[in-house]
Design a protein that fits this description.
This protein is α+β, with helices and mostly antiparallel strands and 72 residues long. The chain has four helices and three strands.
Length: 72
């Protein structure tokens, strides 16, 4: 990894599925459906058995849900 790549991803945190489900309150099947439909952030595949989500992308998704869900 070169220095510019290291700086680009410095501070980036990844979340495993249980942490995402805990943060969103969405069921496993519901979350995976939203990801498949492109309505939730795409996963990052670290290895054949390790899938994560970028924490800031999950937070952005939640913020959009809060903003769009507010009744005026």
């Amino acid at each position: 990894m070169n220095q510019s790549t290291e700086k680009k991803y410095a501070g980036t945190r990844l979340m495993r599925l249980p942490a995402v489900l805990d943060a969103t309150g969405i069921s496993r099947s519901g979350w995976l459906r939203l990801v498949k439909e492109g309505r939730a952030p795409a996963a990052v595949k670290l290895s054949p058995k390790t899938t994560c989500w970028v924490e800031s992308e999950v937070e952005d998704y939640l913020q959009k849900c809060i903003t769009n869900g507010r009744v005026s």
